[in-house]
Structure formats: structure tokens, C-alpha cells
Write a structure and sequence with these properties.
single chain; alpha/beta; 6-stranded parallel sheet; 4-stranded parallel sheet
Length: 412
Amino acid sequence: MERPEDFTRQQYVTNDGICGKIYRQAAAVRRKRSCERVCTAGKEMSCAGRKDAAACLHNKKCHIREGQKMRTTIKDIARECGVSISAVSLALSDKPNRISDGTRKKVMEAAARLNYQPNPAALSLVNRRSKTVGIVLSDMRNTHIASLFMAINKKMEGKGYSMACHILDDWEERPGSEILNMIASENVAGLVWAKPLSEDNGEELKNLRTRIDRLEVPVITMDSWHFNCPGLDVCFDYESGAYLATKHLLEYGHRRIGALAGRRDYRVTHERIKGYKRALEEYGASFEEALVYYGDYTMESGYEAMSYLMGQNVTAVFSFNDEMAFGLYRAARIYGVRIPEDLSIIGFDNVPFDDVMEIPLSTIRVPSVEMGEFIGEKMVEYLEDPSLKTRGQVVYKPDLLLRASTARMSRG
């Protein structure tokens, strides 16, 4: 009978039943791990035919299939150290127990040598504590949001937690309840909801609050979502930031100040508009709706805004974030508009590229990294102290950073 190199049940069960018997023998080998001493390189064994299967049963020979690695288990470590499986489990635990320091050291060294990686899902089932934290973002392409996520993730990983990231795109016709279904199935220990709050989504917002409260995990947000579960609202004073930016341009003598705004439905956009209006009113300058261009916080929308705003004869532009300001820079280069001689520009966020550009961008500093680190630290506190049931709010204040992109109005 011709014998192929590898077999499956369908390929090898013949009328005489011989190969079916070999298959069952080889399957038994895998279950009993009879070949584990041979496969010390961490490669999966597959027996090929009657002789190889019989040899495997006696630990004499096995056919190694390259590229398929077996995960090291506590059974492997127990065999390596000559101790029981329960002793290995206790030695690897971070809880006080009866295992001696010598045994613990031997187990830890073997675990490192065999590249043992604990299974987070299995640990969460055993300990009834998940080590995964969910995070919901709107757009990872935004440098400010990416910096925030990296800072949160760094703090969480430093404490042994991993993050399950979900993107709820602003342009998708997908409700937040879909994302929450996925998050609930992941058995997360906590949730960071970093998506901007919209102004007019009444019933959906009510349902979202109910669903999030039902998760029964601590939730930290980046806006005033008014959840009832334990956690924090970590906010930024966008109104004061917009006020500072507009006031700076007014102090430099500008009166036709364009506002390159973000999405109309975002609360953070409305807060910036309030600050912009407050500064204009304070300096006796009238608010003109025609001087407001609504973009979407992307560089492309900033590029598209330039021709419109220049058509309104503005002498300065307050961009509601740095990404859109970069779009203005690109358009200015193409149209031959000089910054700041022809047009003063101030941004919002203080992303890493602001001060390395040919004309460094004046901006409002949002401490993204500090906020991310704080969120990570507070989440760990809530996860490791279940008695924390309070919900609070922290508000970060803006700083005005002046560089080279704004200039005083010439008296001529």
C-alpha cells in the first residue's frame, strides 16, 4: 500500500482499517505527549505511516514538521524541574504560598529557558480576573490621539495589563452598541472610552450609558459622559484654550480672524467656538458666521479651507487642531501665501511636528502624554482596588505656546 508523507483521517482510513489504526495510535501519542522529549525545540510532531507511528510510541523517532511550534506549558516546566504541576503553578503565582525560595527560583529559571508565556485567557478564568482593558477611539491617524493611546498602553503594559483597541469611526453607520457587544465578549476588566461626545444624539447616548453601566467595570472617559459606573472623566478645558488662541491674535491687532473648526456635532467643537466668541466679544470684535469653516479635524479639510478663508479676507486663522493647520501650511505653499507675513496661523494640540517645521507653529498645548499616563495609572488603581466605587472628574488646563507662525498686523 502506498504511504503518503503526512496523513489525515480522510486520507488514511482504508478498507483493511490498517491506516486507521495507525492514525489512532499517533493521536494517542499526541495526547500522551510521548514525543515531547524528542521535540525539545518546541516543534510539533507528526507521524508519517506505520513505522514512524510505532517508533514515536517508543520515543525513538518522530517526523518533525517545521514551522509549527507547541506552546510551553506548566507540565513542561514541571518535567524539566522534576516537581509537580501544582508546585509549578504555585511558584509562578504572585501570591504568598508554601513553595520554597529554592524551588521558586528553579521554576522561574526553567520558565525563562523554555520561553514560557502564560495564557491570559486561562489565567482570567482561573483567577476570575481579566488582565485586558478595552479602549475605544475615533481615529488612530490623528497624532494627538495616537500619542494619548501610546501613553495609556505603556502604563498598562508596565503593570501586566494588555489593551484591546477598537476604532469607532466617525463616518461609519455603526452604533456604539455593536462595539460594546464585542467588548463584553472579551471579558475586559476595565474600559477607556476616548471617543468624542456628540451634541445631539439623545436616545443613542442614553442607551450607550445604560450599556456601559451594565458592563460593571471601571470606565475612564475623555469627556463628560456622565456614566454611573466607577471611574473618571478626564477632560480638557477646550473653551479656555480657544479663548487664549483667539485673544493672542486679537492682541496682535487682527480683527478678521477665521475659525477653522472641526465637526459640527462634536461637543469639543462647540466648546472651542464658545472660547473663540468670548475673546472676540471681550475685544469688541463682532462674530461673523461667514468666518467659520467647518472641517473634520484632518489635514485634508485644512487644505480645503484655505481658499474659502482667504476669500473672506481673513488676516489670521485659529485652527481647532494642529492637523488642520498643517493642511493650511500645505495650501499656503501652493498658493504662495506667506506665513506669517500674509496670514497668521495658530493651532491646537501641540503635536510633535509643530516645532520642527520650517515655520514652527504657534499652538495651544494639550498634554496628551501626561493625560494618557494619568489615565493608565488611575485605571490600574481601580482594577487593583475593587473597593473604589466613586466617579470623579479631572480637568486639564491649556498653555499658549508662541512660535513663528503668528505676527502683528502691520500698520500700513
